[in-house]
Design goal:
Blueprint: H1 2-7, H2 9-27, H3 45-56, E1 61-67, H4 71-74, H5 77-91, E2 96-100, H6 102-114, H7 123-130, E3 151-158, H8 164-180, E4 187-191, H9 193-198, H10 200-226, H11 238-256, H12 268-292, H13 297-324, H14 332-369, H15 387-400, H16 403-421, H17 439-451, E5 455-462, H18 469-485, E6 490-494, H19 496-504, H20 512-521, H21 524-527, E7 537-544, H22 549-562, E8 570-574, H23 576-609, H24 614-638, H25 649-673, H26 678-705, H27 714-760
Antiparallel strand pairs: 1-3, 1-4, 2-3, 5-7, 5-8, 6-7
Helix pairs in contact: 2-11, 2-14, 5-8, 10-12, 10-26, 11-12, 11-14, 12-13, 12-14, 12-26, 13-14, 13-23, 13-25, 15-26, 16-24, 16-27, 22-23, 23-24, 23-25, 24-25, 24-27, 25-26, 25-27, 26-27
């Protein structure tokens, strides 16, 4: 392959350029995605139940939150007219199920008294309608839209089958109407999950660009400081330029195979910049080392590919298998994350192998014409020994002589970390993945505080006829039991039974015909999200407080136990909180499974690639396996929770860290084959390749460091912090734990061989 690169360099560069054009076209097909399908597999029962519910009803609500000094201010004519404008215009939107606010309920109250649903504009009349004169409190029928005397709510329920783009358009329309409706002396803001996620894609695009630019700047600085190569200064940055081409290829492939950018997959690009520069550094460093030894350019390329190519190739295979463990996650965006990592590392490896070495040949081709016929320069240049090499040279003997201390400390930290892992919380609330200072999130939190929570569990009730008195009676009993036995968690229930009993004065209807007559007289906006037009499907809304996931699971289990429907009635429990439970279980169960699968896959492939040499395969994996415990300890101490991103840490750090161990191991055995003893071979290996490993580690840390500037995405920031620490741990383990293990095992094997040899003699 080295000969091919040396002889076909112009062809390689030309083909690389053509592929860039194709990749740029593919990149135009990239899409952002933040829907439920990024959290739940479309084959899962929970997703299918949620989809079925959304075919009939809606659970996504855009809320206009109006805040004033007191109720009198809220009921001023200008503000009532503005609310009416919002309710009327959004109520006629084809993508909206209902738009219910104070004006709607005031008109209903007036209609009951006068028969005409008119809006009085006299503040005193409005006050008498809304406030109970006997106790001075807002009447119960207005609590949904006037939760207190300083806030008014307009709830705009969206159709359940709307795409995220359509939800975004509705949210933007609401904002435009509110801005021009004419509110006076009050603050009117648009909030709710659709409003938050409507702005999320713009945030993602902005953060992705910022991370990309920052990671490039960071790489420029790191390479300038720690990567010293021959030639003029700018050649230190060649690996970064090569990797950017690999990133373009990755973008293009993603677009071509329809892998979306999500809150998880958007972390791939800074990571790939760090990893890709790492691979390019290894090739560049080995090439530079061979040239400094006096080899011709052609020989340096061939020897570089021969010696470092297999090492990095094995590391790439091991890393890809570690990343492949993410395919076993039940969370789609985690699986996409694994796929993108594999595509990215292979692309950056191939670009570093072919294009970087081809460019280096063109740059140094003059040297080839000045070489003697025997292929060597008259006088080889001496290797430059820097302070990093000198430090590693002093570190190597100390490490190999303090085996007991190093191994004992490493094991203690691992055990302590694994124990603390069970105490790390798991976060599934999408809004907690975003900065709580983001205006849309702040408005949502304010709404939750006012209403006591905006989450709801939905019971989808299917029957030949929901209006059957037996079904109605069962629903009434079910709701009464829920409210009676779950007052700590449930704030209320809503269904057609509330409307029916309110219309009959609490008397249970005796026939289906009577129920249908009552429903036929009710305003369409009130009943549209509670029962279908053919009376075969109903929606029982169970409003719950903001609860931890364990409490939501408890509520779900209790509700499941309550459901004992009449014959012919089917009940499905769904809603956003149920989706959160499924995500929680996927993250907690899948995380351990992914890590174990990653360890197993990497070990098996290394066992095969090392020609079934068990000690070498164990030595390559063990030092990185130890830091899985260190990682858990750090997360526990920093209070960082498991999310769809941090749940990938086990497989991710295995894939990244095993490269460092393989590079050092293979260089060590290369020196051993030259005849050096274990301690001398380790000192040489650490001195020769240690600088490149440290530089690689720093570039990977720098790639993850770019995630820290994604201030709008807490999920990325926390992931960046932990992974930077983990890569640092991987460097520490490679330079401290691995050398002492290798020398200890090799020395023991050598003594054993001598004993066996002596016995045979």
């Amino acid at each position: 392959m080295g000969i091919f690169i040396e002889s076909k360099r112009l062809l390689i560069i030309a083909v690389s350029g053509i592929l860039i054009v194709a990749a740029l076209f593919g990149a135009t097909q990239l899409k952002l995605s933040t829907g439920v399908e990024t959290y739940l597999s479309t084959d899962s029962q929970a997703y299918q139940d949620y989809t079925k519910f959304n075919q009939h009803f809606g659970s996504s609500v855009v809320v206009v939150l109006v805040t004033g000094n007191d109720l009198t201010q809220l009921l001023q004519p200008a503000n009532m007219t503005a609310m009416e404008t919002v309710e009327n215009q959004m109520g006629t939107n084809p993508n909206v199920i209902s738009a219910l606010g104070p004006v709607f309920f005031i008109k209903q109250a007036v209609a009951q008294q006068t028969g005409t649903p008119a809006l009085p504009l006299d503040p005193q009349i409005l006050q008498s309608i809304v406030v109970d004169s006997q106790n001075g409190q807002i009447r119960p029928q207005f609590n949904r839209v006037l939760p207190d005397d300083q806030h008014a709510l307009i709830a705009i329920v969206l159709k359940g089958d709307l795409s995220l783009d359509d939800q975004k358009l509705v949210s933007e329309e609401v904002e435009n109407i509110v801005a021009t409706a004419g509110f006076s002396g009050v603050e009117a803001v648009v909030t709710g999950l659709p409003a938050v996620f409507g702005q999320l894609e713009d945030m993602m695009s902005s953060s992705l660009l910022n991370m990309f630019l920052f990671s490039i700047l960071l790489m420029l600085v790191i390479l300038a400081v720690v990567f010293s190569v021959r030639g003029f200064f700018a050649w230190r940055w060649l690996p970064l330029g090569i990797v950017l081409i690999g990133i373009i290829y990755t973008f293009g492939i993603m677009g071509m195979i329809n892998v979306p950018i999500t809150m998880v997959t958007m972390a791939v690009f800074p990571i790939l910049i760090g990893l890709g520069v790492d691979y390019a550094i290894q090739f560049h460093n080995r090439y530079d080392e061979e040239v400094r030894r006096g080899e011709t350019v052609a020989e340096a390329i061939i020897d570089s590919v021969t010696h470092i190519g297999p090492s990095i190739g094995i590391a790439i295979i091991a890393a890809s298998l570690g990343f492949a463990a993410l395919f076993f996650s039940p969370v789609p965006m985690v699986r996409d994350f694994g796929l993108m990592l594999i595509i990215g590392v292979i692309a950056t490896y191939l670009v570093a192998l072919f294009l970087l070495l081809g460019i280096l040949y063109l740059h140094d081709r003059r040297n080839a014409t000045k070489t003697p016929i025997n292929g060597r320069k008259a006088k080889a240049k001496q290797d430059k020994v820097g302070f990093v090499e000198r430090g590693l040279g002093k570190l190597a003997p100390w490490v190999t002589k303090n085996t007991t201390i190093i191994i004992s400390l490493a094991l203690l930290l691992t055990i302590g970390g694994l124990i603390s892992d069970s105490h790390i919380a798991t976060e599934t609330d999408e809004t907690k993945f975003i900065s709580q200072d983001f205006p849309a999130v702040k408005n949502l939190l304010a709404l939750e505080k006012i209403t006591g929570g905006v989450s709801s569990i939905n019971m989808l009730i299917e029957s030949k006829d929901i209006t059957d008195p037996l079904v109605i009676a069962w629903m009434v009993q079910l709701e009464q039991r829920i409210i009676l036995e779950q007052p700590e968690f449930v704030t209320g229930t809503t269904s057609i039974t509330n409307l029916i009993l309110q219309a009959t004065g609490g008397v249970m209807p005796q026939s289906s015909v009577q129920v249908k007559q009552i429903l036929g007289q009710l305003p369409v906006p009130i009943k549209r999200n509670l029962i279908t037009d053919d009376y075969t499907t109903g929606n029982l809304v169970i409003s719950i407080k903001q609860l931890e996931i364990a409490k939501i699971q408890e509520v779900r289990d209790q509700l499941t136990g309550y459901v004992a429907p009449p014959p012919g009635v089917n009940v499905i429990l769904t809603g956003t909180p149920i989706i959160g439970i499924e995500l929680f279980n996927a993250l907690t169960d899948g995380r351990v499974q992914m890590t174990l699968i990653g360890v197993g896959l990497i070990f098996l492939v290394l066992f095969g690639l090392f020609k079934f040499n068990l000690p070498r395969a164990v030595l390559a994996v063990l030092p990185i396996g130890l830091i899985l415990g260190w990682s858990s300890g750090v997360m526990y101490l920093l209070g960082i929770k498991y999310t769809p991103l941090t749940s990938t840490l086990g497989a991710l750090i295995l894939g990244i860290g095993v490269e460092f161990t393989i590079l050092l191991m293979m260089r060590y055995y290369e020196e051993r084959r030259k005849g050096e003893g274990p301690e001398e071979a380790m000192a040489t290996a650490m001195t020769k390749i240690g600088r490149a490993i440290i530089a690689s580690g720093l570039t990977v840390i720098g790639g993850f460091g770019a995630l820290l500037i994604a201030k709008d995405f807490l999920i990325l920031r926390d992931f960046g912090i932990v992974t930077m620490i983990n890569v640092f741990f991987a460097l520490v383990s490679t330079l401290f734990v691995l050398p002492t293990l290798i020398v200890w095992v090799d020395t023991w094997q050598e003594k054993r061989r001598l004993v066996v040899k002596s016995i045979r003699k």
